[in-house]
Amino acid sequence: MNELRPVGAATRFAPVARNAGTPLTLDWFEDVQVNLSAAERRAASIPTRRSVKKNYQAAWLVKALQCIDLTTLAGDDTPGRVHRLCAKAKRPLRQDIVKGLGLAEMPTVGAVCVYPAMVAPAVKALEGSGIPVASVATGFPAGLTPLPQRLAEIRYAVDQGAQEIDIVIHRAQVLLQDWTALYDEVAAMREACGDAHMKAILATGDLKTLRNVYKASMVAMQAGADFIKTSTGKEDVNATLPVSLTMVRALRDYGELTGFQIGFKPAGGLKTAKDAMNWLILMKEELGRRWLEPDLFRIGASSMLGDIERQLEHHVTGRYAAASHQPLA
């Protein structure tokens, strides 16, 4: 497992081609079977059978930091709160920790994710940083507003400067197995995104079965999703390892069928550095080293960043700091 290089090393990969999508092809998923107990056993092995220590663990945690979509999706969000979050996105670690790790420069997070109304303040705060702004859209989190309004929300966020759009699917279409309706809506959303990358949130906690998760993943990718994402963070059950295993195997199958590399984003309930390690190990073992880069892997989180910074400070100093030493914003 110690295939990630020690802290400070860099790896370059060729850019990922955008997913062109395919026609709706039911043969790719309609008869799929998912063995729930086998998926649970495989997922349970991930936290217990793998160990990454010392410099290698620090390298994995820096990589996790670089894959975080630092997120605020609260009803009382303000431009000031977004500005503070963006400042943390640009400098997620204290300078003394960066120096102690031997990093050549300050790492940054994968993106900042906000509501459409907060896109413009985020774009302004991140100007010149190279950090993209992601926006949830399409009636987040329920996705039950009329389709024209959902598409208009995407266009608004893109017009405000969002480079990534996290859309939510209409869960009833999955539960009713209405794959044509789901495909048509997601394809329309992909068109509305234009040049902005689209992450399709499946809200897997509402989909009831892993078979439904696999099928919805495949339809979203056929319709042009650049990423598939587990959850809004608002469902009763959010990202879990068995669900994530099912989704990454779906995107692996899609890649073998089409040649396109699709990204994956777990979100909701991931809070600790240990969570980050578990999902990184899942990606490495199931998909390979390429899926440990932010153009193919993101973690939807906010509080996780504080715990990662705390663990990295311990690596540098040998001491655990109070949580107040790593304020989020």
TrEMBL record:
Q: Carries keyword Flavoprotein?
A: no
Q: Which reaction does it catalyse?
A: 2-deoxy-D-ribose 5-phosphate = D-glyceraldehyde 3-phosphate + acetaldehyde
Question: What name appears for this protein in its UniProt entry?
Answer: Deoxyribose-phosphate aldolase
Please tell me the species this chain comes from: Aestuariivirga litoralis
Pfam families of this UniProt entry? DeoC
- What pathway does the annotation place this protein in? Carbohydrate degradation; 2-deoxy-D-ribose 1-phosphate degradation; D-glyceraldehyde 3-phosphate and acetaldehyde from 2-deoxy-alpha-D-ribose 1-phosphate: step 2/2
Single GO cellular component term: cytoplasm
The coding gene here is deoC
* UniProt entry keywords in alphabetical sequence: Lyase, Schiff base
- The answer to keyword RNA-binding applying to this record is no
Q: Which family does it belong to?
A: Belongs to the DeoC/FbaB aldolase family. DeoC type 2 subfamily.
A Gene Ontology molecular function term of the record: deoxyribose-phosphate aldolase activity
| GO BP terms | carbohydrate catabolic process; deoxyribonucleotide catabolic process
Q: Which InterPro entries match?
A: Aldolase_TIM, DeoC, DeoC/FbaB/LacD_aldolase
EC id:
4.1.2.4
